[in-house]
Amino acid sequence: MNRIKSRTDLDVLKKDGQAQIKQKACRLLVCSGTGCVASGSEKVYNKLCELAKNHPEIDVVFSAEEAHEADGECCKGCKGTSGADDKKSVSIKKSGCHGFCEIGPLVRVEPQGLMYTKVTEDDCESIFEKTVLGDEIVHELLYHEGEKEYIGEDDIPFFQGQTRLVLKRCGHIDAEDIHEYIASGGYQSLAKALFDMKPDDIVNEIYESNLRGRGGGGFRAGTKWKQVASQQEKERYVVCNGDEGDPGAFMDCAVMEGIPHQMIEGMLIAAYAVQAHEGYIYVRAEYPLAVKRLKLAITQAESMGLLGDNILGTGFSFHLHINRGAGAFVCGEGSALTASIEGKRGMPRVKPPRTVSQGLFAKPTVLNNVETYANVPMIIENGAHWYRSIGPENSPGTKTFSLSGTIRNTGLIEVPMGTKLGDVIFGIGGGIKNDQEFKAVQLGGPSGGCLTKENLDLSLDFDSLKKTGAIIGSGGMVVMDQHTCMVEVARFFMNFTQRESCGKCVPCREGTTRMLEILQRIVEGKGEPEDLDKLLVLADMVSSTALCGLGKSAPLPVVSTIRAFRDEYMEHIVDKKCRAKVCDKLKTYVIDPQKCKGCSRCAKNCPVNAISGEIKSPFTIDNTKCVRCGVCMDHCSFDAIYID
């Protein structure tokens, strides 16, 4: 790659990249985020490449990585080729996540603006013959709702309800190609920061934008930057928290996989603002694709003079490193994260001193998460006033959320802060699967709380959610219908936080253990009425005295479910029943005499001989002997056994 030595070089590369993309008669962008890869998009990409190689009448360009592996150089994959005059110019690229995981694998076709959904390897020949060579639409691969057909991504209701700013490029450019990021305007904000602004100007711009940390705490990013910039110690660090350990959360993962340069550009701007020369990205080892693309992005940026020494010929230097975490949830906490990077056991420490004064290697450290850094380039480009015009005054900008659970449209979304919860679930999310009844949504992962029907008009912003006892957290949304047991939900999250406790402080180590023991008794039908008071007392103790933020928020799922679903807890305790029929120890298996044919299969397979009867007559279950294993139901061919 040619090294960029000035702002002029960057502008020329941008124009050249835009021209290269425009000259392509057809661009196939195969979604290669983790979700689509798991659904088979790698096979789709490989098949399309195989088909392209068999057509000498076209000039084809593959992803940057494939070109590098095939040719030993990056120019063909990254920059593209002009192609012979008598050949049709085609490119096949690996994009990041589009967000609509429910309908993947996805293939975007440009400049036609087509979006093909649920694409399989068998569909590739049809796409190639009809669309690439024949400029026709493969209608059966388009997104359909009933009789309505949607040709392009922007036409699909799932996307129409969103405001994609952070994720604007994700799915639209090659995730492995720095040239395509530059062609889309990438690194222009860095150039503006380096050439048109002083470090203090950048810090003030971020402060005035009121960008709040997207990792969960919602702390003002500009305040952190100001505090680091004002330290007497001149050796400083910029660290990115890419740990994202919440169950059901994959927002940061999508950014690191699909638009890694955008996050890196944000870190570069932060580094120049506080005059730091070393940075670290802490990413979960469970994100191998993100790690792979981050490494590729760093290598490309260093080769082109956008990372390393003398960036853009300005004399400013910044070196970036990747640290892979071992999967400890507690390492999402700032001081535990920096300890882990240093090679120590990831455990939070007493504060103060805080990270801004004594962070990584006991030096002043700017520590923000992936999404926060990804917001920085567009704030520098468009200004603080523009950013504050989006969303509420105290929570400006957009927020990414991951939708999962019993919701029709699962995936990754981005909406302005202040969007109503109901608009997300029943608008963008399409409502509950199979027309079931909405019951609750767990927001913020194991550190968050449950919101119910009464909260559907709630504004999704930091301050509004705090009033309900819930938090945005990293942005994971797990939607639940009436078949969900809220007591089991509380037990599940408490089990998670108890296992992930680092054990350093007694309130978290012992408090979560005692809370889990009580919840376990309740779901087993051994609870007592006073257990709810015990849970609330323990919750107050843990949240008031735990050492770190993760410990303080651990009781939230329990407190919020007791507050909203106390009657469900009491049913488990007093009536020994689980209305959702989820808790194994509270299930009662019954044989319907009208459906039972007296075949005896259930009795023959019962491990405790709890079923009796005569052949060709209805059998019965003795629930004093039944161990609720469900084997009888599995072996019944007549659906005669049900759970009462």
From TrEMBL:
UniProt-recorded name of the protein: NADH-quinone oxidoreductase subunit NuoF
The family assignment reads: Belongs to the complex I 51 kDa subunit family.
**What Gene3D superfamilies does the record point to?**
3.10.20.600, 3.30.70.20, 6.10.250.1450, Glutaredoxin (3.40.30.10), NADH-ubiquinone oxidoreductase 51kDa subunit (3.40.50.11540), NADH-ubiquinone oxidoreductase 51kDa subunit, iron-sulphur binding domain (1.20.1440.230)
Query: By its UniProt entry, which SMART domains does this protein fall under?
Result: NADH_4Fe-4S
The 4Fe-4S ferredoxin-type domain extends over 587-616, 617-644
What GO MF annotations does this protein's record show? 4 iron, 4 sulfur cluster binding; FMN binding; metal ion binding; NADH dehydrogenase (ubiquinone) activity
**Keywords of this entry:** 4Fe-4S, Iron, Iron-sulfur, Metal-binding
Q: Name one Pfam family in it.
A: Complex1_51K
Q: Does the keyword Protein transport apply?
A: no
Top-level lineage group: Bacteria
Q: What is the lineage of its organism?
A: Bacteria, Bacillati, Bacillota, Clostridia, Peptostreptococcales
- Annotated source species: Lentihominibacter faecis
**InterPro entries the record matches:** 4Fe4S_Fe-S-bd, 4Fe4S_Fe_S_CS, NADH-UbQ_OxRdtase_51kDa_CS, Nuo51_FMN-bd, Nuo51_FMN-bd_sf, Nuop51_4Fe4S-bd, Nuop51_4Fe4S-bd_sf, Thioredoxin-like_sf
